[in-house]
Write a structure and sequence with these properties.
The protein has helices spanning about 1-10, 15-30, 40-60, 65-90, 95-100, 115-120. It is an all-alpha fold.
Length: about 120
């Protein structure tokens, strides 16, 4: 099963993005409250956009950027952010979407694998 998912649905994304892809897939498959037909293309976009956003954000911290380099990195980061927001909603990963599925995180809980990978507390 793993190889067929890798070959069929994760073409064109980085190894780092594949880690996020698999973690989201696992999380959504383990939660019986979520009844979403997964669109693997959207999941690939989400996974790669998370990696891209982090990389662009890290590069933007550099003091040696020219104004043009900064502008290009900033715009690319904004595009990655837009991809994350739109694909997260389609996958049922936003708080509003989780609420639709009757999933509300309250009180103390352990972070999910996806939250750990993305550094969300």
């Amino acid at each position: 099963m793993k190889e067929s998912i890798d070959k069929k649905f994760m073409l064109g994304i980085s190894e780092e993005a594949k880690t996020i892809f698999k973690a989201v897939l696992k999380e959504l498959n383990l939660n019986e409250n979520i009844k979403v037909k997964l669109d693997f293309a959207v999941l690939s976009i989400f996974s790669q956009a998370c990696i891209d956003y982090a990389k662009f954000n890290e590069k933007l911290q550099s003091d040696s950027l020219t104004p043009n380099e900064y502008y290009n990195l900033y715009n690319n980061r904004q595009l990655a952010k837009k991809d994350i927001m739109s694909s997260a909603s389609k996958l049922g990963l936003t708080p509003t979407d989780r609420k639709k599925f009757g999933i509300e995180y309250t009180g103390d809980r352990k972070p999910t694998e996806v939250e750990k990978l993305l550094g969300i507390k």
